[in-house]
Design goal:
alpha+beta, Nucleotidyltransferase, domain 5, eleven-stranded mixed beta sheet, 11 strands, 38% helix
């Protein structure tokens, strides 16, 4: 049996280097000249041949995390597939970016940060139709994996969508501190006055201890933005003060930067393949590509954008020295 002409590392480096086109055909076109240069079907076979295992991501990421420090942040994002008709894994999801329901693939990531790093440690692709797992199932599964891997984070943060009583109890069962937002209709009990929506309870910005229905005692911070929007941040750490909450909520935004990074610089949503296996492999390889860009940023201080654009800068400079596309002189 002949050795494959294209491997996962070739594909990862292609995702880092290419600027716009992320197809298997383009991956073959830009390969170095030589007898072993792969054709586009070799790249296509690669993304169908590999086993899309999230454990591979952890194998590479574990060297760059401190399990007993930092935060674990869990959030999801929709990989836009607006024109998908026959692409597997594509379903309809609410998109915070578009503020409407869109077609796409739902990616859930567990990110580690100490305030500077963006290290994806685990991920899941939501596909209830094929594996029967809900988003909350994936949530608890990834946290269980993190616990088995020895994580003892300072805090676990996540979106209000994942703030079910079952999820909160699962995190508390590991002895971890959690921080999330509550929806305004979550029922809480202040000083045994009965369960009422949290929006109807007198809360302080510095935090108020209440009983969350079905869970137990928590501390809720009512934050009123300058535009009048109100957020209710909650934690199981009854001693948490406002400065600590502020530190953690600022770090929560790290996962939004990560989502931007994997989409803009690694092409995670631009795979031009149809099968679920190929889509899963492209997503995994894109996350591994991001991990390399992030490691380079941490080592050199060079941003993801600068690192990526720097790859083609010399080519643009060479073109400007000898332009190919000109008009006939009219002088």
């Amino acid at each position: 049996m002949n050795k494959p002409k294209c491997n996962e590392y070739d594909y990862i480096q292609f995702l880092i280097a290419t600027q716009k086109a992320y197809s298997c055909t383009e991956a073959a076109r830009v390969q170095p000249e030589g007898d072993q240069r792969p054709a586009h079907d070799a790249v296509t076979r690669l993304v169908h041949r590999l086993e899309p295992d999230p454990e591979v991501l952890w194998t590479e990421a574990q060297a760059y995390v401190s399990p007993e420090q930092g935060m674990l942040i869990l959030d999801d994002t929709t990989l836009d597939k607006p024109h998908a008709r026959k692409i597997e894994l594509v379903t309809r999801h609410w998109s915070g970016r578009h503020r409407k329901v869109v077609c796409g693939i739902y990616l859930i990531t567990l990110l580690w940060t100490e305030g500077e790093s963006h290290i994806p440690c685990d991920y899941r692709v939501y596909a209830k139709g094929s594996d029967g797992m809900t988003k909350n199932d994936h949530f608890r599964q990834m946290l269980a994996e993190a616990h088995q891997r020895g994580f003892r984070p300072e805090c676990v943060a996540f979106d209000s969508w994942y703030g079910s009583v079952e999820n909160l109890k699962a995190i508390a069962g590991y002895g971890w501190r959690w921080l999330t937002q509550l929806k305004s209709n979550r029922l809480v009990n202040l000083n045994r006055t009965g369960n009422r929506p949290v929006s109807e309870v007198a809360l302080e910005e510095r935090g108020t201890i209440v009983h969350l229905k079905g869970y137990g005692m928590i501390k809720v911070f009512k934050i009123v933005a300058p535009n009048g929007d109100i957020e209710y941040w909650a934690t199981n750490d009854l001693a948490m003060d406002e400065l600590t909450r502020l530190k953690y909520t600022e770090q929560v935004w790290m996962i939004e930067n990560y989502h931007r990074g994997i989409k803009q610089f690694c092409g995670v949503e631009r795979a031009q393949v149809r099968s679920a296996r190929a889509q899963r492999n492209h997503i995994l390889l894109a996350l591994r590509a991001f991990l390399r860009l992030e490691y380079h940023r941490l080592q050199t201080g060079v941003s993801w954008f600068e690192a990526k654009i720097g790859i083609i800068r010399h080519a643009v400079r060479a073109y400007l020295a000898h332009p190919l596309y000109t008009l006939n002189s009219t002088a």
